[in-house]
Amino acid sequence: MNNAPLRRIVTVNNPEGLHARPADMLVRTANKFTAEIMIGKDSEFVDCKSILSLLTLGAAQGTELTLTAQGDDAGQALESIAQLFDAGFDETDLVRGVEPAVDS
Description:
Layout: E1 6-11, H1 20-30, E2 36-41, E3 44-47, H2 51-55, E4 64-70, H3 74-86, H4 92-95
Antiparallel strand pairs: 1-4, 2-3, 2-4
């Protein structure tokens, strides 16, 4: 088994950046996995399972962040988290005046 952490680059797409609501979504998603998940900007890496740590990154729209994960479900963790970033944490439609889809 390879113990090297997996890496993935993500970009903050939502207009307000990584503020409390998307940080909460990120923590909730990360906590579904047993892998150790870190996220960083430049040389500062923080625990992806800590909302306070995430907020210290000050990641505005357009910021590139590096995700790393190590553990049995590391690949799944990175994929799930990357999907949040790709979807702009479901905030991009709100800015355009379009209501997000609601599951019934």
